[in-house]
Every structure is written in C-alpha cells, then in structure tokens.
Task: structure prediction
Amino acid sequence: MAAKTLTIDGKSITAEEGATVLQVAEEAGIKIPTLCHLEGIYDVGACRLCLVEVVGVPKLLPACATKVAEGMEINTDSERLRKYRRMTLELLFAERNHVCAVCVSNGHCELQTMAYSLGMDHVRYEYLFPKWGVDTTQRLFGMDHNRCILCTRCVRVCWHIEGAGTKNVSGRGTKSHIITDLNMPWGESVSCTQCGKCVQACPTGALFHKGSTAGEMERDRGKLEFLVTAREKHQWVVAV
Amino acid sequence: MSKRIVIDPVTRIEGHAKISIYVDDAGHVSDAEFHVVEFRGFEKFCEGRPFAEMPAITPRICGICPVSHLLASAKAGDAIMAVNIPPTADKLRRLMNLGQMVQSHALSFFHLSAPDFLLGWDTPQPQRNVFGIIASNKDLARAGIRLRQFGQEVIEILGGRKVHPSWAVPGGVRSPLSVEGRERIRLWLPEAYATTEAALNLWKKTMETHQREIQIFGNFPSLFMGLVAEDGTWEHHGGKLRFTDSSGSIIADQVDPQKYHEVIGESVQNSSYLKSPYYLPLGFPAGIYRVGPLARLNVCQRMGVPKADAELKTFKMMGRGAVTSSFLYHYARLIEILASLEYIERSMDDPEILGDYLRADAGINSLRGVGASEAPRGTLFHDYTVDRNGLLEKVNLIVATGQNNLAMNQTVAQIARHYINGSQQIPEPLLNRVEHGIRCYDPCLSCSTHAVGQMPMRVQLIGAGGKVLDELTRG
Ligand code: SF4
Ligand code: SF4
Ligand code: FES
Result:
C-alpha cells in the first residue's frame, strides 16, 4: 500500500493509503471531536462534528469520512470550525428534549461531555420541544427518542456487528427517527436478539438498560471493539 | 363597605404567598385566605416518562424538601414493582429521612421562627431575622446552624450531595453507608442533643410568656393525620395512616397508604392552584385535617425512644384530648428533632446498617403504586399510575402544605380577628403575627402548587356587603 504524506495542523505526517483523516490525526495525537464515529464500525459522517478544513477545498469535510490524499493540508482547529461545531451541537440540543439532570446518562454522556468541552453554555436556536415517546416494551432495554441524536451508531452495530438488522432510520428531517424492524414496538421485534450492542454503542441516554435511574447508564464500548477485532483479525485482545 | 386587605408577600417563607383578609361592614374579619400563586406543572410534565426516573425528577419539585420527594417517589416505585426492599435499604432510607427531619425542623425553628418569639413581635422588621438572633444570642444561633448542618451531613453521607440526591431508587438505594460515614454521624450526636435540649429549655420559657399566642395562633378543633406503627408508635417513613379528632379519639386507623383515596378527598378550588385534601367520610370542608409535627404527635401514643417519650408526656398535657394550638407546632418540631436523634443513634449500633445488599429487582407488577412518607411538614403521597411498560399515565402528588392549607386559612382568620377589630387598617404588629401564624406550619410553597390540568385563575371585584360585582374565571 502506498504511503501518503500530508500535514495536519502544520505537522507533517505519513499515512497509509485508504486511511481516514480522523484515523491519521488520532495516531498523530491530534484530537478531533466526534459523535457518530465509533471505533470498530464503519463511518457514515452523520453528525458533522468532525469537520476539518482542507486547504484548496472550499467546503468543510468530515474527518471520519474523508480519505487521506497526497499533499493534503488539513486544519483541525480554527475560529470557523469552532463556530460550526458549536452550531451543530446547539442544533442537536434544540432538536429534541434533553434534560441532563434527570437523564440516565447524566455524567457519562458523550453529547453532554462534548457540550462542556466545546464551551457550549447556551443554545441560540429555538427549542423545537417535539413530542417523542419512550419505548419500554422491550424486556431489557428502553429507547427514549427525546435524547436521540440520530448518530445511527445503534443501526450500524446492529447490522454490522450483530448482523440482526433490527434497527433502522425512518422519516426525513426533524421527523427522522430510529425504528425497530418495520416500525413496531421494540418488544414485538422478531429480529432483535436482545444482545444489547446498540445500548453499548449509544453516545447519549437514548438507549438504556431498563430500570436505570439518573446517571446510572455507563457503557463499555471496549466490548464492541473487541468483537470486531476478534472477528476481522482473529485476535482476541482484552484491554486491561 | 367590604374591604379586602392584602398582605403581600409574606417574607421568609421560601416561595411566594398572598393573603386576603375579608372584613365586613363593621370591620370584623369574616374570612381569610392564603393564596398560593405559583404554578409548576410537574404532574403533567411526568406523564409518558419511565417511572424509574421519578426519584430524580420529583426532588426538583421543591428545593425545600427534595429528600422527602425522593423517598416518597422511590417508595411509589417499590409499590409498582411490588417488592419488599432489602432491610438495609429500608434502614438507610429511614436514616436519611431522619436527617431530613432534623435539618428541616432546625431551619424552621432557629432561622424562621425563633426570631419572632426571641426578639418579640414588635421588633422592627429589619432586625427580626436570623441576624437579629445572632446579635442577641450568638451561641444559640450558632448551635442552631450547626444542628441543621448535622442533618444535612447525614443526608450527604448517604446520598452524596446535599440537594437533589437521586440516591433512593425503586427497589432500594444505590449506595451503602460506610464505616467512616457512620462514625462521622456518631461523633456529632452529643452536640446535636445538647443543642436540642437547650432549644427545648428555651421553648418552655417561651411558652410561659406566650400564653396568648397559644390561645389564638390557630387554636381550633380539627382532625389530625399521620403515619403510625401498628402499635401506635410515632412513624416517619413506614407504618399506616391514622386520623384522630380534636378530642383525641381515633376515627380511622391502620389505613394502608395504597388506599389513601378511600379516606382522603381532594377539593379543587378556583381561588388557588392548591388542591385542598379533606377526610372523605366527613366531606368538605368539615373533614379539614392537619398534618405535620403537631399532627404526628397527636396521632401517636408514644415516640418509641425514651427522651422524646418524656417530652411527649408534657406535650400531651397541653390539650384536652388532642393538642389543638398550631403555635405548638414549634414544640412538636423540637420533640421530633429529639426523637430523630435518638433513632439515628439507635441505628448506629444496628449491624445491618452497614450492609451492602441494597436493591431489589423486578419488573412491572402493579399498574398503580403509592409511596407515602412523613416529610418534615407532613405526610407526603406520590401516587403513580403506569402502563404495562412502566410509562407514567397519571401522577398525583399530595403535599403537606396542601393538606394544611385550610388550617392555615383558619389560623390567619383567627389571628386577624384579634387584631383587626373595627379598624380598617392593618398595623405592622398584625402583619408580623399573621406571618408567624403561617410559619407555624412551615409551608413549602413552591411544591404545593401542582397543576390540575390548567392554571385556574379568578379575578374578583368585591363591592359593598361582599357582593361580587365582576368576575373573571379561567381554568
Ligand atoms: S442524552 Fe446526554 S445531553 Fe441528552 S439529556 Fe441525556 S445526558 Fe443530557
Ligand atoms: S439511539 Fe443512540 S445510538 Fe441510536 S441513533 Fe440515537 S443516539 Fe445514536
Ligand atoms: S464523527 Fe464524523 S461526522 Fe460524526
């Protein structure tokens, strides 16, 4: 595989062909904020939080879904990027109903952590206050659409790792939402194997173990990575 | 001409209050009303949410007694799961409730009420506060603050945070008591006892000089309600409901809180956002009852701990049958602090208190669950109806201040009657006394105003002879 040379934030880097900007940046110790990206599954560029500037390209590109190319000059941090990231985050909050103080993920939520770290202290957009329900028909897990950011991690782990294909996205725009099978209560799904991988993958409090109370949902993402590595590389690596 | 005199706002009550005193042509007080003008639609807000979230949501109803809502909510959850929680969890919840009793009663007595009877009614407003006490009685003020801190410390040792701990959950509690935590509580007890005893001595002197207040600050017959143990001992978290009348006779006993709606009716009044509960068999408003420290001491036979039992004897002698003066809420509060300390002390030596089996697990086994617990201000009910998946369909909360609302109205009217006599003005001393009359109940305003669907509002124009000339009603 041919090697590519490029610069990220002025640092020159050699990368393998086919690698994404996000992967390369991470290896070089440069942190790019992400939400829909999850180690172990393919990227879809859904959240737009990882946007970076590439010199010569007028639009911003998602680092997780952009492959490296020879001579690329990438900036991961600028006034413009910070502005866009904050905007994206604020829109995520305005789109659904997030009440962190009583949320099962309070204190362990990637969205919340991101909001803190990007200095989001208020939301400039009008909240939509949509009426979304909670699906607690499943015996073990619950889904609260009010807290979903449509990152589709759950859909991807369900199709790609578990191979059940239970979770899907339905609807457009603000009506988009995660569905189970052909839009039925989760408890009635015939394809769901109750493996709980979607629950492990979810970055927010949208998917949870039933009966969890405020701040009780902590996830172990390592499990998903472990499974993928075991299957694809036939290596059973246990992180300690 | 009928004149409506409005005192607004009553200071030093957390939240807002509005009082109307109605006088007739001759200037005699005909009636009084204590309006609650806040609005928080918690009951609606909760609908559709999983019931397990409630112990985190409901403490936010009211910053004044979050612990009480937390515990009642967790208990309602237990009832929906139809589980018996592990014994240690029950003991720890009780310990937290006792801590809450101490801190809340200490706040009420030392900060909010003592300024009135220590500094006198006619001390000008600027000095009639806790700073006034500090200036006049440094040691007592400091000890009072420390006693409150002790109660808060108990809560914090268990729940981790002073305010809004989401520590109790349906099925039990989330974390145990550590040995270190227990020792911290134990070490503080002697000082807490000393302060409580000093306060009791002071209170006894106050009673000698305040006979008039005992007579007119809400001294009237009514029913009393509270939780009691099976043998009639004082309860604060378990037990069943008992009603007594002003002669001290038991009129209903061992009513399972799950069936509170068989003995308690709720009247919705247009003039207030509060629901006024009443004893159902007697109807409204004849079924008026009081809750809280005075009521709990009236309905129980004994405190179950020696020091408080000795005080209870003295207390019981202050009434023929029941003790009917709301001014004696203060005394009851001190006795409850004492009892709480004794129960806390007792639990320190219970080997089960340090246990780590804390949480029972179950699904939805009952579609309705009621959690009742004695909040410092009185019996608190959380009544949840869920669907088969545990999502809330209906939430009904009955809070202490709502239950005492009618008694507060009567108290205000009684005091006003003694001070407004033919006059068309309210002198400053009356204001102070009316304020205090309400403060006897230690109301927690922000939490007594949950919505009944919509915000009811009524604007009345009252003319000569109390005739309503114009009226606007909404909701
Ligand atoms: S999902 Fe995250 S951001 Fe949303 S309410 Fe829960 S903790 Fe807050
Ligand atoms: S449920 Fe969770 S994982 Fe699935 S799309 Fe929503 S936020 Fe992402
Ligand atoms: S992480 Fe790249 S678009 Fe979400």
